[in-house]
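Order emerges. For instance:

***
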Amino acid sequence: MAQAKVLSFGSLNLDFVYQVDHIVLGGETIDAGEVATHCGGKGLNQSIALARGGADVAHAGIVGADGQALLDICRESGVDVSRVHVDEGRSGHTIIQVDKHGQNSIILFGGTNRGVTQAYIDEALEGYGEGDLIVLQNEVNMLPQIIESAAARGMRVVLNPSPFDARIDECDLSRVWLFFVNEIEGEQITGKSDPAQILDAFAERYPGSNVVLTLGSDGAVAQFGGERFEQPIIPTTAVDTTAAGDTFSGFFLAEYLRSEDVAQAMLCAAQASSIAVSRAGAAPSIPALDEVRAALGA
């Protein structure tokens, strides 16, 4: 398993982040204390978390001519971007409000992330095969086709079904090897709200799949091969939770590929996400592996 190649196929966004007292209400106008532009997108965040977590990862996706900074931060983090296309049009971007408690609200514009074609999917998957990983989320178009094409090659499909919408219903979720979901997404897929019932429902519907369920302040629980692993949060002062889930999934996968130890992967992921939420921004908040290991005393 240690030799498996990883392809992160997903979004690359510019994040425009506004610091506010509270999330704006309908019809309300409020002042923003600060504004900053960061590189983000769930796809980019997952790629950078994988790379900073020590995985050998390539990214597939599409940016516009305004997306040079997105390519630069991937390269600087050790992500192979040779498969990324630069097309006409504007790159995907988000408008993010972050309140004084570190909670966020996000508006997403897909831009060039919505330009995926079957021809590009085939090109991006060239050279990948049995046992390799493809890491996905729902911020690019053609997600059902990406899943089918990857599964047909024998790749293990890793899916974070976020943002959850009707396009997830078009996907053959039985093809997914590993789900990363939070409580809301877990309920949207299974109709259950209790964490144990969510995991039971996944096991019944998708018996060939594994699940990592994140529970906010209650930590996370994983279900692999019928065995469950619980991981409490590692307390910190939250500044910005934007990339917490992506950091968790990237470091979990990187550690799991090294050790095949689910409990160790959960611990490593919890520490990495604890560091990430203590910092502002999405991609810039993701720590390096050495920093995570130092925090764990490893």
